[in-house]
Amino acid sequence: MFSTKLAGGAAALLLLGAAAPVAAQAPATEARNDYSKGENWLCLPGRDDACAIDNTATIVKADGSMSKETWKADPNAPIDCFYVYPTVSLDKGVISDMTAGPEERRVIEQQFARFASKCKVYAPLYRQFTLTALRAAAMPGATPPAGPRPQTGYNDVVDAWNHYLQHENKGRGVVLIGHSQGSGVLTQLIANEIDGKPVQKQLVSALLLGTNLPVEAGKDTGTFKSVPLCRSTSQVGCAVAYASFRANSPPPANTRFGRPREPGSTMQAACVNPAALGGGKGELHAYLSSGALIAAESGGPPRWTTTGAKVETPFVSVPGLLSAECASANGLNYLAIHVNADPNDPRTDDITGDVIAGGVVQKDWGLHLIDANLAMGNLVDLVGTQSKAYLAK
Question: Where is the signal peptide (predicted)?
Answer without folding.
Answer: 1-24
